[in-house]
Amino acid sequence: MRVDLSRVLFALAALALVAMVVLPVGWLVVTSFIGPHGPTLDNYVTLFTDASMIRPFLITLGSSAAVAVLCVAVAVPMGWCVARTDMPLRRMVRILVMASLVTPPFLGAIAWELLAAPNTGFLNQFARVVFHLDRAVHPFNVYSVAGLTFVNFLYTFPYAFVFVANALERIPADLEDASAILGAHPAQTAWRVTLPLILPSILAGALIAFLQSMTVFGSAAVLTLPAGFHTMTTRIWSLFQFPPKPALAAAASMPMLLLTLALLRAQQLVLGRKGYALIGGKGARRTIARLGAWKWAALAFCAFVLLNAIALPYGALLDAAFVKVAPAVPTFANLTFSHVHFVFFELDATPLALWNTMILAFGAATVATALALIVGYLVARRAVRGWQLLSFLASAPIAIPSIVLGVGLFLAYTRPPLLLFGTLWIMLIAFVTIEFPAAYQQLVAVASSIHPELEEAGRLLGATPLRVLREITSPLMRSGIVAAWCFVFIGAIREISAAILLFTAPTRTIAVVIYDLNESGDTGSIAVLGLLLMIVTFAVLALANRVPVITTAAEEFRA
To answer: In whole angstroms, how far apart are CA 407 and each of 22, 200, 468, 489, 501?
Structure first.
């Protein structure tokens, strides 16, 4: 008698998700109602009446909405140019977008400090020389809401780009050819056929962009604190400074959680009006648009975006890594290798921090992707009772600032029966919990686009649900699985908000070391470590990009 392990595995995945999310979030909810003398609503009264709490919330909403709009406005045309046109250097553009994705936002913010600081930034110095401006004039000011929005956009739009490009690559040409045969104009085909098919990915990308911008801490801390204003994440962080106010910080995270629930519900209502599903695998033929002379305009557009996301920031970091005092135009007189020597031969924290970072990133990416595959499948197929609760739990962590979730994890895992503080295990749990929603959003969108009839054929042949998931659904989702793994790996390698609360001397990561160096103003060492981190990460992404993703359900099932 064969034992069907499907239900057992699915139940364990659900229990793991409950334990991973409910425990720390539960501590946050309870703490938000605790005052000095017991249960109270004073924290919420303060939250909605104190101007120092209201203004950061409004700034966060406005900036995050602008980031989401910018991401869609840039990612959709870029994704179309890369996936569905004959634009030159398409593969190079995709690789460079990944380079933007691997750049930690706080490191990008430091690079843009070097470029657009009001007094010393490269761009301001250049503008003064070219246009003969007074030294008191600074055309660029990264220490502003606009500067924060711009920097967050540069390191968030790759999420939307990958969603859109993957969705466009999955659309077979037959659907668009049928529209053309029926007399539809290309614009009508794009509006009535292509757009509805990629709409779930566009909305998922916009949602991720909004929430990533809303909950980011690193770039906000770098750019807003010197300017004298707060976002919600930096305001919450300030509540943990002396004297700490964790209860008010926990209460401040609740509106963001409720806002995320509202956005997810709105997304479901919009997409629930019509259903779209593809029958087939990634190997279907795709329509390639011939742009003619416009292909150079498309390439120029992509190049301008990547100039701001990659070329200028990387150039600023390279300059900081190899000149004595940055920012400065490199010359033979001010070139130095002292920062490199210090990082690799004098800074004792570097080897262990690099090892910890790689172990945590690989572990978190593998665990989170495997769990997201199972949970995403259950939700997309509504395969278990209570799938709505699973969907909520899978998306909830992205609504909570990582620094606040770090407090919840600290409270959850530093008391019996899980005494994990001071080990890499608590860091791994933190990274998996924080980065899980990105993998889940990707895989549930991909699973929803695969028609259930493919799985039903497997069940008719006697396959268990687990075997159907392993041999039919998973191969069709392979590109999404690789993308999800990369998202979690990148998120884990650059995570700093929770790590800054949970690390001890033996468990420091590269991000924590960079944060410590930023406190001391050592820009040169920060640049060296940041470039090292990006080189290692980009190498991993290059290997992941070589994983074969072209397959069909029939081929995999026969195997």
So the answer is: 14, 33, 39, 22, 7
